[in-house]
Amino acid sequence: MSSVNRLNNSTSGWKKTRSQNKDQHFTDVLGLPCIENLVCSADETPEPIATTITGNIPSWIKGNFLRNGPGKFEIGRSSFNHWFDGMALMHQFHIEDGKVTYMSRFLNSDCYKENLEHNRIMVSEFGTIAMPDPCKNFFQRFLSRFELPKPSDNANVSFVQYKGDYYVSTETNFMHKIDPQTLETKEKVDWSKFVAVNGATAHPHVDPDGTTYNMGNSYTRKGAFYNIIMVPSKKVNPNDTLEGATVVCSIPSEDKSKPSYYHSFAMSENYVVFIEQPIKMDLLKIVTSKLRGKGINEGVYWDPKRNTVFHVINKHTGKLSLIKYYAKPLSTFHQINCYEENGFLIIDMCCSDDGQAINNYLIQNLKKSGNALDEVYNTVCRVFPRRFVLPLNMDSHTPCGQNLNTRLNNTATAIKTDKNKVFCTHEDLHGDDLHEFGGLEFPHINYSMCNSCPYRYFYGCGFRHLVGDSLIKMDLQGKQIKVWKHAGMYPSEPIFVSSPGAVEEDDGAILSVVITPNQDKSTFLLVLDAKTFEELGRAEVPINIPYGFHGTFQNRH
Predict the structure, then answer these.
(1) What are the tens digits of pLDDT across the range 319-363?
(2) pTM higher than 0.90
């Protein structure tokens, strides 16, 4: 098959972009191909199998590329409703000496075991309510509707690390420790046994010394709180998990009974930034979901009448800044990077102007075709990379009404509107050409070199479909892009792997799992040169794999 790798400038490989300032990114795309096989249940492959190599897998890449995502969408005669609900299927691509093996295992979670034992869905997930046991009598079934939905331990979002151990995580209070060599489920870990939270994100941040930060909510008589959590880098005892975790700061929700939903947060060298966005969680609807026979997702809604609030917390003191930074209503799932420079806090993140997309990813929508599929896609707001600049050094003498962002070559604004209030507008980190590829999500950087530091490059998926259908490299010097795209191929989140002795930021490789829903058993691991964005090689796997969420690379050097 001929390559359609988009290297758009014949001399340098870069396509020059132009700035664009549009509020609406809704589209009128027609003729999208059906992708229903991306959400078909798969079998696990618990023993490593060989792959077929095309091209060259660099011999310096040595380790395990670990991926996580939903892999089972039906239990007996019952089916999950939402993409986020499928049973966690973990994947491992072991790379060594230019060769690749593949294996996968279902997470041996309590809900997975309970579902299989009863051959039906027993534990409610985000978009699927577990129905009463038909073997119970009418009165027992009636009473069961008044039970609070118990949190699921179906950790299908990502692989994360704490104190050197690997875990799979979702957004409830449960994680599972995993052996990255065998993908065996080792231990269930409950956040609430260590700190007073009801869950934690699947996107922690790590300091250079290994100290890890995360966020989780707590619900008290005084209302909902957002908590910044710190987990120490070292174990005291060999079997430690989250021992020593502490809450650094608690932030009260603006609306006590309707806190904001968040998937991640930003972190610089000295600050954690929580973005309180107007995607709201109606706690009353969520706790009564079983009684009403509705999924938890129906308690999550977009409230565009509310602005977005940036809360800035000093990591070292736990002090919440008195200054509140506001922006227009926006939705963000993933941040790109965050760093301090000359008295400013720079926050780069993927944003959209509408927060209703989370409820568009019903499995029935992902299985649509023709005009019905086009309609779903065109009603999902596109996501684009943006930069916000927050001035840190303000006092009572700071004037109102003028732009406090004095950084050169930057169009973001920060205007003091009142005491301790600043309204911010963003700079687009892209040009017109990114619209052609449907925006950008699943961002990734050279984390070990650039996290919390000024940087030049980030990588992500283009979304000219409901899932990623291209890989994009953005150069922030000139906002130029390189693109890898092939018809009928759907790449996962790109993961950057630094080459040994790397000096430059993009010295390394990009790893991505490419799913081919309309070709049987032709999934492959793709390896790109991170600098040129040219394909180096691929490792074809002779089985079908569902489209997943997040992953990481375990370096074995």
Answers:
(1) 999 999 999 999 999 999 999 999 999 999 999 999 999 989 999
(2) yes
- Asked whether residue 545 is assigned to any structural domain, the reply reads yes
C-alpha distances out from residue 188 to 110, 152, 166, 175, 235, Å: 9, 12, 12, 6, 17
Number of domains within the chain:
1
Residue 19 lies in a domain: no
Is 334 annotated as a binding-site member? yes
Helix (H, G, I), strand (E, B) or coil at 499: coil
Residue 380 CB contacts under 8 Å (≥ 6 apart), including other chains = 357, 360, 466
Whether 254 and 437 have beta carbons less than 8 Å apart is answered as no
Q: Is 203 annotated as a binding residue?
A: yes
Interval 198-255: pLDDT, tens: 999 999 999 999 999 999 999 999 999 999 999 999 999 999 999 999 999 999 998 9
312 bridge partner residues:
273
Q: Per the annotation, does 397 bind a ligand?
A: no
Phi, psi of 296 (to 5 degrees): -60, -30
Which residue range forms the structural domain that includes residue 230?
36-555
* Contact residues for 291 (Cβ-Cβ < 8 A; gap 6+): 145, 146
User: Which region, left, alpha or beta, applies to residue 497 given φ > 0 means left and ψ of -120 to 50 means alpha?
Assistant: beta
Residue 290 · residue 129 · CB < 8 Å: yes
Look at the chain and count its residues: 557
